[in-house]
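Students often ask why inverse folding is considered easier than folding. One informal answer: many sequences map to the same fold, so there is more than one right answer. In these notes we will look at a single instance of the problem. The structure comes first.
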């Protein structure tokens, strides 16, 4: 029998149009309509239907045949419209900074500012609920490295729009390198480990301003922050089992320490979503503010904190965290290598396919 892990790369390619000779960037691939491309290049379906076990050619034939008698020119136009629409609509939101500003800051997925002694790193993909792309992981690492050396006293991570972050961008898994899904899993595990290491080693007080719902890795790394302020609209959700995955961000260690093993298990094993008030009661969140006054109250507070002597704050942070650092790095390494295996499991691949084909949401 063909296992899902062997079938998945084929499904990816059929779904993303690779078998139909589409050469597009990964984002566009994940959304483009392969039928229109086949129609646009080859006209109406005119070959015999492949046998039931010829999975790849059958999927290609079904997609082509589904177009019926759509004229070649219309299909071509639909295809062009779809591709152009995707590139112009991606990340479209009134809250996204204009292109020129983004280029100026040097970040594509973040807006990073430094004023009043505070470096603010804002995830900036509001139309995608600030889902974290490979690029965003890289950029957050760069921004943290820069913030560790700049003259700010404290560093803040927050999100633009209605979400804090919906966690890992599940389309990350559609961009399969030539080494296949194994290579993808290995590279992702390395990136994940480096990403979390940056939080473990960050020398200044780190504050999360959780402006809305938080999912997955955006929740787990909160255990590595000094302070977590949340809007009362925020929720905290780690649906790892639902996704066939396992905890990361050192949460398998920090969450039981913060909230006790039973409450941590409810979140990390059973995917229980917490309200901001519940997360505060369990010690993951420092304080909850009404959404209507959240930004004003939090930034007033942070501006006052940023005026405290920066060296004293750094030293106090080191004293609180340093005893744990070695342990945290070991936990991070173990979680990352466990996830590398999980990403290759049928459970995980099925969950991602269900999201990508719009069959499942959280
Ligand atoms: C280096 C690799 C490290 C990996 C580390 C691993 C981390 C594990 C995790 O983080 S697990 C968590 C993964 N996240 C999810 O499973 C969330 C998936 N998203 C959803 O279920 C929903 O989008 C939602 C509940 C977050 C929001 O639902 P809502 O109906 O309010 O909004 P939409 O679904 O219409 O979202 C708007 C558009 O944003 C896209 N999107 C949102 N989140 C993600 C995501 N995590 N990955 C990819 N895309 C996401 C969504 O598809 C919509 O896109 P569209 O407008 O083009 O349709």
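Output (designed amino acids):
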């Amino acid at each position: 029998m063909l296992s899902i892990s062997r079938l998945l790369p084929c499904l990816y390619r059929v779904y993303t149009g690779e078998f139909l000779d589409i050469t597009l960037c990964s984002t566009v691939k994940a959304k483009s309509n392969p039928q229109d491309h086949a129609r646009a290049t080859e006209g109406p379906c005119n070959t015999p239907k492949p046998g039931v076990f010829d999975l790849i050619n059958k999927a290609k034939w079904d997609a082509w045949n589904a177009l019926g008698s759509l004229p070649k020119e219309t299909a071509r136009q639909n295809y062009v419209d779809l591709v152009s629409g995707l590139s112009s609509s991606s990340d479209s939101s009134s809250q996204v900074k204009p292109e020129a500003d983004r280029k100026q800051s040097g970040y594509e997925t973040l807006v990073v500012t430094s004023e009043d002694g505070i470096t603010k790193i804002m995830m900036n993909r509001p139309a995608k609920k600030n889902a974290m792309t490979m690029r965003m992981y890289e950029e957050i690492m760069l921004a943290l490295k820069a913030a560790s050396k700049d003259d700010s006293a404290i560093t803040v991570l927050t999100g633009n729009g209605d979400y804090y972050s919906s966690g890992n961008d599940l389309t990350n898994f559609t961009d399969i390198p030539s080494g296949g899904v194994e290579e993808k899993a290995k590279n992702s595990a390395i990136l994940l480990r480096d990403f979390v290491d940056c939080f473990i080693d960050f020398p200044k007080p780190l504050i999360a301003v959780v402006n809305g719902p938080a999912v997955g890795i955006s929740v787990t790394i909160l255990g590595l922050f000094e302070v977590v302020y949340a809007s009362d609209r925020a929720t905290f959700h780690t649906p790892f089992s639902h996704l066939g995955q396992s905890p990361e961000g050192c949460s398998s260690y920090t969450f039981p320490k913060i909230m006790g093993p039973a409450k941590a298990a409810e979140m990390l094993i059973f995917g229980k979503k917490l309200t901001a008030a519940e997360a505060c009661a369990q010690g993951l969140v420092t304080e909850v503010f009404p959404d209507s006054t959240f930004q004003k109250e939090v930034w007033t507070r942070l501006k006052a904190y940023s005026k405290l002597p920066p060296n004293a704050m750094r030293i106090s942070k080191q004293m609180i965290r340093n005893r744990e650092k070695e342990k945290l790095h070991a936990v991070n390494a173990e979680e990352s290598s466990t996830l590398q295996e999980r990403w290759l499991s049928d459970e995980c691949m099925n969950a991602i396919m269900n999201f990508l084909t719009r069959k499942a949401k959280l």
